Amino acid sequence: MRIATYNVNGINARLPRLLEYLDEARPDVVCLQELKGEGDRIPARDIEAAGYGAIWHGQKGFNGVAVLARGRQPVERTVGLPGDPEDVQSRYVEAEVDGVVIASIYLPNGNPQPGPKFDYKLAWMTRLAAHARSLLAEEVPVVLAGDYNVIPADIDTFSVRAMQDDALMQPESRAAFRNLLFQGWTDAIRARHPEPEKLYTFWDYQAGAWQRDAGFRIDHLLLSPQAADRLVDANVDKSVRGREKASDHAPTWVDLR
After folding, report:
1. Domain boundaries, the chain
2. 67: pLDDT confidence band, cut at 50, 70 and 90?
3. Is 147 a catalytic residue?
4. pTM (predicted TM-score)
5. Does the active-site annotation cover 106?
């Protein structure tokens, strides 16, 4: 089973690239982030015509996540991250596909920091950790896939100096990500590509970042022990980022037996 995560940066703006990716790579499951749409702004018919069932959690103009499954309909488990009934941002959706629990995550950016947006980011990560712990207790294969907006280590950015004041690389953000790993989750990319290998998933549209390979790794697939036992491979489809009118993220994937 190939499970991919892909921040599309506006599903309607990037729909040709997304459909192209689905046709070429044919992943079994795709977790999408940053849909920037809801209701009739979600191109559900196009996705269905491409052979994918889907669970959508959209939001007008912002955020939005989805889980797509090739040739079948994902079984909905959770829409919205538990822990704060007043949080209306569409950043989490969880489904089951062929016995694997899969979550699509769009973690808050947190900039500018310090400030309320950074506080929201850290509070959201605390809620995610609590929910992740409950998923581990189920003792089933689980994949937490998405745009975490966290650069876990210095090796995961083109420039520590350029990013040192960014919310993505603050000690608190990194500590919260490590706390997830310490629960027993496996970072699929690092399991297959250990340091010091550089493997980026995002390249900004500004300052020729793509052309200079000035990227960083913020899209992650975390595996429960039962999923990690089935790990075959994980990588980034970097070439997708270089296509015309592409998202600033590249699809990142894991293969499980």
Report:
1. 2-256
2. very high
3. yes
4. 0.98
5. yes
